Amino acid sequence: MTRRTVILTTNPGIEDIVAEEARARLGAEVVEIRAGHGRVIVDIDESSLYLVEYMRSIHRAKLLLARDKICGSKECLSKVYEVVASSGVEKYVTPYTSFAIRAERVGMHEYSSLDIARVAGDAVIDAVRRLYGLRPPVDLDYPAVAVSVDVINDEVYVSIELGGELSWHRRGYRIYDHPAALKPTLAYAMIAMSGIVDGETLMDPMCGGGTVAIEAAQLLEHSRIICMDRSRRHIAGARLNARAAMVENRIRFIVGDATRLSSYVDQVDVVVSNPPYGIRMGSPHEVRRVYREFLREAASVVRKSIVLITTEHRVVKRTLEEHGWRIVHERRVAHGNLYPYIIVAKPR
Ligand SMILES: C[S@@+](CC[C@H](N)C(=O)[O-])C[C@H]1O[C@@H](n2cnc3c(N)ncnc32)[C@H](O)[C@@H]1O
């Protein structure tokens, strides 16, 4: 059995969820978790490589060809050439396969990502020419093979992008684009953190375009999923998205007010939700009122866990504790240009 090393990239803050999904779905051995950097390196059996495409928690996957130490001075650019030229890249790029270099640089270096791309490009061309006597075509827009060369602090990684270059968090079902949509990878992570078991009921009482509900319906075959929002327009959009994801009939859609949750449902097992962030809602007083009333209701209706992503973590924690719930986990994640908290609460 041939083992291959794969770099999985994700939203900073949910690397452990990626590692867990890779273990469960791919039988992967986790080599390294770069917490806060959105990178997880795993070893998997070559025959499981195709399964990477089914992962729900990652943005991209890259097949690692080589990894080495590198220094930050201009002279060390020659190291980029050496590592790329000896990486075996000519197995993937041939005179008949167009390629492009995608270079990324994190940390302090005397060279830019453009310098890296230029040197790495020369190294690929030379490696292919050595083997075939011909040079490969470069196509920066639509390459058949994208070769990634990332210099992260004092290390250089050479890899091949798997499954195309678009981030996998852009799910095909986003027909209706909610103005404050949650990244599906974060929705997946929150569902995983809720501890829900297939067959239990999940509700998102402020579901917007339906990301949490759709991810849940795709993940949990036997669960009842409820998607509620006070906006008729968003619920219509969520329904469209669910139809595109082919899970419309798995989800119950409600136009309703989360501050009166108990008038719509008697009991649900978990609530996973992305309520509006205060800075987008205007008056802080109004924000706190909506959160308090929603959480008072949620505390009485939810049986197992409440998982929220929010910038209003203080009011969430205080209110849930006042209603006899305990905060069992909290973490900060990157979401666009904001750093909200994911909070997991359980009844005492
Ligand atoms: C941040 S958005 C949710 C986005 C969603 N997670 C997605 O990916 O599309 C918050 C949603 O809460 C809804 N909302 C605000 N107050 C509400 C309330 N009292 N009851 C129900 N929904 C509410 C808004 O209409 C908005 O769609």
UniProtKB/TrEMBL annotation:
Record keywords, A-Z: Methyltransferase, RNA-binding, Transferase, tRNA processing
Subcellular location, record wording: Cytoplasm
Record bears the keyword Methyltransferase: yes
Example of a GO cellular component annotation carried by this entry: cytoplasm
Pfam families: THUMP, UPF0020
Domain of life: Archaea
Residue ranges annotated for the THUMP domain, each copy included: 43-162
Keyword RNA-binding: yes
GO MF annotations, alphabetized: RNA binding; tRNA (guanine) methyltransferase activity
GO biological process: tRNA methylation
Protein's recorded name: rRNA (Guanine-N2)-methyltransferase
High-level lineage: Archaea, Thermoproteota, Thermoprotei, Desulfurococcales, Pyrodictiaceae
